[in-house]
Design goal:
Largest sheet: none
Structural class: mainly alpha
Number of helices: 5
Helix content: 55-70%
Order of helices and strands: HHHHH
C-alpha cells in the first residue's frame, strides 16, 4: 500500500473530499500532508484543496476565511483598536 491508498479507497467508495479530509485529520495526518493527499487523489490544485480544508473547519469559503483572517491580523496590528 502507498501512503494515500486508504483515502483513495474512500474516494473510490464515494467519499467526498471533506469526508476524506476529516478522516485524514482523525488519523493524525498533518494539514500539509492532507492538502497533498487531496491534490493527489482528487486532482485538485492548491486553492481547491485549501477550500476543502477551510470548509471542513466550518468557514463559508476560502475567500471568507481569508477576509476574516485579514481582519483579525489588521486588528492585532493596531493593538486591538478599531
Amino acid at each position: 500500500m502507498t501512503e494515500f491508498d486508504t483515502y483513495r479507497e474512500m474516494k473510490n467508495a464515494g467519499a467526498s473530499p471533506q469526508e476524506v479530509w476529516c478522516a485524514a485529520e482523525r488519523d493524525g495526518v498533518s494539514r500539509i500532508e492532507a492538502i497533498r493527499l487531496l491534490r493527489a487523489i482528487f486532482g485538485f490544485d492548491l486553492e481547491q484543496a485549501k477550500e476543502v480544508m477551510v470548509r471542513a473547519d466550518a468557514a463559508e469559503s476560502l475567500d471568507e476565511h481569508q477576509r476574516r483572517l485579514a481582519k483579525s491580523i489588521d486588528g492585532a496590528s493596531k493593538g486591538g483598536r478599531e
